[in-house]
Design a protein that fits this description.
about 550 residues, alpha+beta, Immunoglobulin-like, Rossmann fold, 2 domains, 7-stranded mixed β-sheet, 6-stranded mixed β-sheet, about 20% helix
């Protein structure tokens, strides 16, 4: 008996999901460091905006799911190098597998030339004269952060400082005496402009990667590029911290309409705010800084949209308010289930595995940029269907980008299927025990399908280093068209996802699979299923692989 997948409703996502998921969790931790008052002996100018930064850092931590009991603060005289290192060690003892960690620093940056090598870092508090021994270098920070990354799912660092030091012009250095905005660097820092080491080898991100940390497991946010100044405003705090707070807590927009706001979309929102605020100051030699994001740039750090930051004044009104996608553009057209694509068959009663002569290819991911381009022809304007196709693919990409680099999932599957003839088969091997999920964006790019688990096959437990074949005995899937490319996302999760987030909208539709039209609501709910309230258990980390399978005549 054949049942059309297209006749099965995916309304199961629609009934549950969009309650807030930002409840404080013990599995999230924050270390917030702020130094606005340095000792007189250190000969370092103060930063009056730091208290505002601490307040904003707490807001950001809360939005990331960190409860007040899991936030540790080090301020001014308490933020010595020894105290910072001690708290990092304590944090390592507290963090469990799958936790998230947020580390924030607001204060001066510095750098010095060490035998032709430029050492950059954070200026910690020193009771006496500030020396190189008081610098918490990027290498130091990476060394103390690396043990955290062995257990934590994600580590997010935000450093609102700069390392410009000696490469700045003298007129810019004099701004430290300005009663208004001022740069966040130590004016006594040595000149690294003669350093011979490659800039690409410096920085926290390269240091972490050198220590074996997977780039999917950390995010480094820096307020300025290596040759730029980060600015401090007495009333607003660090300009970058202020802007990121506003964007992270509600003002950033889901520009690709994937259903979630990624960190890169937060950065884009904040960068515009910084540029707008600094534009009037450029004639005085004060230029905007470039927010740097390295590592997992598309990390979703807040699973729900929350109100904008309260009680924070706007830096400066802009002639053109940045709103991203308009609400009118967000309106989704309800598209009825299209004709049959893949077709379910029952039985056979034997396992389906790729035959020796079938064309298969080992895959771990798909180049998403090129995959998106398939929906457009040069010189044409994307129509509604094409826009939905790109947005739906962006949803799968966003889920894929949340993967943990330590969890590997390898897929053996055909690269193409003949419509009406070939069956969809895949062999999956993971390096960890867990729960397996498979979601497909059909070749018409209008619907998502939860292929596995399904009503016929609920046991989705998978063992480490043991091949797992789909479909299994009792069901199979045959290509049903239309011609095009199917995108299949395989997810290996440490904790199961809540099946009630996929309730059947209409059981009379028949068949074991559920599907959702690729509208914005369904995209939001699909993301929430994997990285939001759908997580059952304290460990939400997951591995993922995204592959493409072409359907042809």
């Amino acid at each position: 008996m054949k049942n059309s997948l297209r006749a099965i409703s995916f309304g199961l996502l629609i009934n549950f999901l969009f309650a807030p998921v930002c409840d404080a969790r013990e599995s999230s931790h924050a270390l917030i460091i702020g130094i606005g008052q340095y000792s007189d002996a250190s000969q370092t100018s103060g930063l009056p905006g730091v208290p505002k930064d601490i307040e904003n850092a707490r807001r950001m931590a809360s939005a990331m799911g960190v409860g007040p009991q899991s936030i540790v603060e080090l301020r001014d005289a308490g933020a010595t190098k020894l105290n910072i290192v001690t708290e990092l060690e304590k944090l390592r003892a507290r963090v469990q597998s799958g936790d998230r960690v947020f580390i924030y620093y607001s204060g001066h940056g510095t750098r010095y030339n060490a035998k032709g090598r430029c050492v950059e870092g954070l200026q910690t508090y020193s009771a006496g004269p500030f020396t190189e021994e008081d610098v918490l270098s990027e290498e130091d920070l990476a060394r103390y952060t690396q043990p955290l990354s062995e257990k934590a799912d994600k580590i997010i660092t935000l450093m609102d400082s700069c390392f410009s030091g000696g490469v700045l012009a003298s007129k810019t250095r004099s701004l430290a005496n300005d009663l208004g905005i001022r740069p966040r660097y130590n004016a006594t820092a040595s000149d690294c402009s003669v350093a011979v080491n490659d800039r690409a080898t410096r920085g926290l991100a390269p240091a972490l990667i050198k220590l074996g940390v997977a780039k999917e497991n950390f995010v480094q946010i820096a307020a300025a590029n290596y040759n730029e100044v980060s600015w401090d405003f007495p009333q607003l705090g660090g300009l970058v911290t202020h802007s990121l707070t506003q964007c992270l807590l509600g003002e950033a927009r889901d520009l690709d309409q994937s259903g979630a706001v990624s960190l890169d979309e937060v950065r884009e929102c904040a960068q515009k705010k910084v540029d707008d605020a600094m534009r009037p100051h450029t004639k005085y030699g004060r230029f905007s800084s470039t927010i740097q994001v390295r590592g997992s740039r598309n990390l979703i750090v807040v699973q729900d949209h929350v109100p904008s930051v309260p009680a924070i004044e706007t830096i400066q009104p802009s002639a053109t308010e940045h709103t991203g996608i308009s609400e009118a553009a967000r309106t989704e057209i309800s598209i009825p289930p299209p004709p049959s694509s893949l077709t379910l068959e029952e039985p056979p009663r034997t396992a389906l595995v790729p035959g020796k002569n079938e064309k298969t290819e080992k895959m771990t991911s798909t180049p998403l940029e090129s995959a998106e381009n398939q929906y457009f022809e040069a010189g044409t304007t994307p129509d509604v269907a094409a826009s939905k196709a790109v947005a739906s693919l962006a949803t799968l990409r966003d889920i894929y980008e949340q993967r943990n680099g330590r969890l590997k999932i390898e897929i053996n599957a055909p690269t193409q299927l003949k419509i009406g003839k070939d069956k969809l088969k895949a062999s999956i091997v993971s390096n960890s025990d867990g729960y397996l999920y498979a979601v497909m964006l059909g070749s018409d790019a209008q619907s998502f399908y939860l292929l596995f688990p399904n009503r016929l096959d609920q046991d989705n437990k998978i063992k480490a280093n043991t091949p797992f074949s789909l479909p299994r005995p009792g069901w199979s899937i045959t290509s049903g068209g239309p011609e095009g490319i199917n995108h299949v996302l395989f997810v290996l999760s440490q904790s199961p996802r809540n099946p009630e987030i996929f309730p059947a909208e209409n059981n009379s539709s028949g068949g074991p699979f559920t599907f959702a039209l690729s509208d914005l609501t369904s995209r939001q709910r699909l993301i929430d299923f994997f990285i939001g309230k759908g997580i059952q258990g304290g460990n939400g980390q997951m591995g993922a692989s995204l592959i493409s399978i072409k359907e042809i005549r």
